[in-house]
């Protein structure tokens, strides 16, 4: 890692710090993975890297709070393109059952590369199926190679079709094996240090694919280990109907009864949380990963994010898997979040700055990383630089309104002070070679599925 990086003469810096300062014509000195200084005309004689930001908007790196990186290999699959959630899953489960560790690693690398080029410096991942010897470390190795800060979660499914669940029996695991492997990956990979590049969470897939006992035991284990909990919740009407039929209560009551609320828990989607559930999440500081593009693609609805934030619910942003989004561009996700809240609440419902805050500071806080997601002295050196001298924002009166006029691809990106993207090019891997490897793996899956 380069110990000294100087971001020189930034046009505008949207800090997302505690006072939400907007700075102009300043330099930022990155040293040993931290932001060491912010000010005009900084002198760093030993700088190993100087990034010219004179025509750039500078923001904290974006934070992705929900993804399924393995799904980058199954974009636009026929049969699932026009299906609701449950039908979509039933189309894709047999394909995912063919995955090997190499599928998992390459697909994760592609997904993380896509995130990096869209300004993301930290991503979570929800991996809940482990076919053919796949393990969580397949994705952790991918994150090391790309260079992003990573929050993998050890997901699981334990109720197959023969016991009334949605997934095929070949993709479920014994619950004692799941808990044993959760202990293994937390002990081996979780790093609680403020500078850590990897933290691990525990994440049973959903209330419709694991037992009540596993949900309860996972919560107990996570609290014992001091790690975070994650799952899908209230994603669409089918999801809520399942909860009412199987558990006799709404999703919010179900997770409350099992200990799945609190500042160490975040739930994906929550499109269908009612007012009482929103109040519960606000009171307990239970987080939500908002995934607007996937929710649109699967016809799940528009999550009431304006109302949630007004009530005090912590909200972050997620791209979800590329099988339900078809993309993993986090800055575009932030724009979609802003637009959808305006669709249902009016043009003044969410500003570009608020949506960007959700995508940076909001996500970092949900993942328990307040040292990320803002630009301030002492915070981690995870920073995105956006070129204002591009076609997309030519003629923009306010380039700092990034989500209105772009750009939608980052110019420079630093993670832990290391330059990951420079002049729009990913530096850490041979991207054409990676894309070719992904193409060959996808073609193999298609051939086996015919």
Write up what this structure looks like.
The chain is an alpha/beta fold and 450 residues long. It has 2 domains: 4-60 and 375-426, Urease, subunit C, domain 1; 62-237 and 255-265 and 274-366, Metal-dependent hydrolases (TIM Barrel, Alpha-Beta Barrel). The chain is built from 15 helices and 17 strands. It has helices at 85-96, 101-117, 137-146, 175-189, 212-225, 237-247, 251-257, 275-284, 292-297, 305-311, 322-325, 330-345, 352-366, 402-405, 431-449, and strands at 4-14, 22-31, 34-39, 49-52, 56-60, 62-64, 120-127, 149-156, 201-204, 229-233, 265-269, 287-290, 315-317, 383-387, 412-415, 418-422, 425-426. α2 (101-117) packs parallel to α3 and α2 packs across α15 (431-449). The mean pLDDT is 96.
């Amino acid at each position: 890692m380069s110990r000294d990086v100087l971001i020189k003469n930034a046009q505008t810096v949207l800090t997302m710090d505690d006072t939400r300062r907007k700075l102009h014509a300043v330099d930022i000195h990155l040293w040993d993975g931290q932001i060491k200084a912010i000010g005009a005309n900084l002198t760093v004689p030993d700088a190993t890297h100087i990034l010219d930001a004179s025509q750039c908007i500078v923001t904290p790196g974006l934070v992705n709070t929900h993804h399924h990186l393995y799904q980058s290999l199954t974009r636009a699959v026929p049969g699932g393109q026009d299906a609701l959630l449950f039908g979509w899953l039933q189309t894709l489960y047999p394909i995912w059952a063919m995955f090997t560790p190499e599928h998992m690693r390459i697909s994760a690398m592609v997904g993380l590369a896509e995130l990096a080029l869209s300004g993301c410096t930290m991503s979570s991942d929800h991996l809940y199926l482990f076919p053919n010897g796949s393990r969580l470390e397949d994705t952790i190795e991918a994150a090391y190679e790309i260079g992003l800060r990573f929050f993998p979660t050890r997901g699981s499914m334990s109720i197959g079709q023969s016991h009334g669940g949605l997934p095929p029996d070949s993709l479920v695991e014994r619950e004692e094996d799941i808990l044993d492997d959760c202990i293994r990956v937390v002990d081996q990979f979780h790093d609680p240090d403020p500078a850590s590049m990897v933290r691990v969470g525990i994440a049973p897939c959903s209330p419709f694919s694991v037992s009540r006992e596993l949900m309860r035991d996972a919560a107990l284990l996570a609290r014992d280990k001091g790690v975070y909990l994650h799952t899908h919740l209230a994603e669409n009407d089918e999801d809520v109907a399942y909860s009412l039929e199987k558990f006799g209560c709404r999703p919010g009551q179900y997770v409350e009864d099992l200990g799945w609320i609190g500042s160490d828990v975040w739930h994906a989607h929550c499109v269908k949380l009612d007012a009482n559930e929103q109040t519960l999440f606000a009171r307990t500081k239970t987080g939500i990963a908002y995934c607007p593009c996937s929710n649109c693609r699967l016809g799940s609805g528009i999550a009431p994010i304006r109302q949630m934030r007004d009530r005090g619910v912590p909200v972050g942003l997620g791209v979800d898997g590329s099988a339900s989004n078809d993309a993993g561009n986090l800055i575009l996700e932030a724009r979609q979040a802003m637009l959808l809240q305006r669709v249902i609440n009016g043009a003044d419902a969410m500003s570009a700055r608020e949506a960007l805050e959700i995508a940076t500071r909001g996500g970092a806080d949900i993942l328990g990383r307040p040292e990320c997601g803002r630009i301030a002295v002492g915070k981690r050196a995870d920073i995105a630089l956006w070129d204002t001298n591009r076609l997309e924002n030519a003629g923009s009166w306010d380039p700092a309104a990034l989500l209105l006029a772009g750009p939608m691809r980052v110019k420079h990106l630093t993670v832990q002070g290391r330059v990951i993207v420079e002049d729009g090019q990913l530096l850490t891997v041979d991207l054409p070679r990676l894309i070719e490897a992904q193409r060959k793996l996808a073609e193999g899956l298609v051939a086996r599925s015919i």
